[in-house]
Amino acid sequence: MKPLTIKITEIVLLLIILCACGNNRDNANDNEPAEANLNQVQARPLADDFVHQPQPKHAIRSITHDVFNQTINNPRPLNIDAFVAAGIVPHHITAATLISGFFAGASALAEDYNNPYDLVIILAPNHFGDLADVVLSDRDWDIGSGVLTDRNFVEDLMNLRHINTAISHEHLENDHSASILIPYIHHYLPNTKVAPVLLRRSLSLSETFNLFDWLLDWINKSNQNILLVASIDFSHFLTSAEAAQKDLVTANAIQNKDYQLIHSLSDHYLDSPASLIIFLKYLDALGLSPQIILNTEASEFLGPGLCETTSYKVIIGTQGD
Is 12 part of a structural domain of the chain? Predict the structure, then answer.
């Protein structure tokens, strides 16, 4: 009977260990975003220990060191001659010299005006197109000494009940639309916090207006010097000639502040209508006009004869000019 008793004891011990491991796995999964259940993601309040405890940092996956170094050594000169309150830049790596040129110009003018930025709010498309209308992350970014995320902004936006929001660290790290800007912010605007926001294309026009109203109120109450950046690529999947035609339509809609038309435009025109609308309404609230200082497309960088191109606009709103 003795050997049998030992075997039964061993079996019971093994079952206890397996149950404990299972519970640990369940507890670990509880700490991850419940992406399969959007209602849980929305309903869960951001507890202090979730927001403020040290977390892993986002890796920079959207651009290599070599490409980044090449673009900061050769930024595209842009006609920026006054303090930049808001801007539109591309997120396509092909046009990375335009990103570098924009942040180089904005940084230089902020220094000239002795008015450094405290925070860069980034509005960008959610290329995955899933999870929620607004996707955020409260994690910092692992580059140099680190780029800090404004956790107060994230927490406040997550608590906004009439906008469909969710936390997803994976989305923010793996979607290049916002993450490609982070190294440039670190280089040109050191010690400036960031607040990247991914917007789903299905965000309705009324929801876009509601989000803008909240954003403007938050900025006004923040007592921070904020640079609002919309990360947008324009015409997609067309020839250069077709893209030029679409860009004219978009440019006219921008100048006329035709929000209804902008909201209806497909990827043939731009990839984030909501980001463009919020950018334009923000300029309007500041009493500024959008200045399209550059409009080009991928063949300028890759050579002529592309079957499909992507077009780019750099647009700014400046103060003190």
Answer: no
Taking alpha carbons only, the member of 244, 100, 106 closest to residue 184 is 100
Task: Pick the closest to residue 111 from 80, 136, 75, 141 (CA basis).
Answer: 80
Q: Which residues pair with 123 in a beta bridge?
A: 197, 230
Residue 36 located in a structural domain: no
Number of domains in the chain: 1
Work out whether strand 291-297 and strand 83-89 pair parallel, antiparallel, or are unpaired: unpaired
Give the CATH number, domain containing residue 146: 3.40.830.10
Alpha-helical (H) ranges within 60-202 are: 65-73, 96-112, 151-158, 169-174, 176-179, 182-188
Res 34 pLDDT > 60: no
Average pLDDT over residues 86-106: 98
Terminal-to-terminal C-alpha distance of the chain = 94
**What's the chain's average pLDDT?**
87
Q: Which of 202, 131, 121 is nearest to 167 (CA)?
A: 131
Bridge partners (DSSP) of residue 195 are 121
Q: What is the pLDDT of residues 104-129, one digit of tens each?
A: 999 999 999 999 999 999 999 999 99
pTM: 0.83
Residue 15 lies in a domain: no
On whether residue 27 sits in a domain, the answer given is no
Question: Which whole-number Å values give the CA distances from 157 to 138, 168, 285, in the listed order?
Answer: 11, 14, 20
Cα 67 from Cα 93, distance rounded (Å): 9
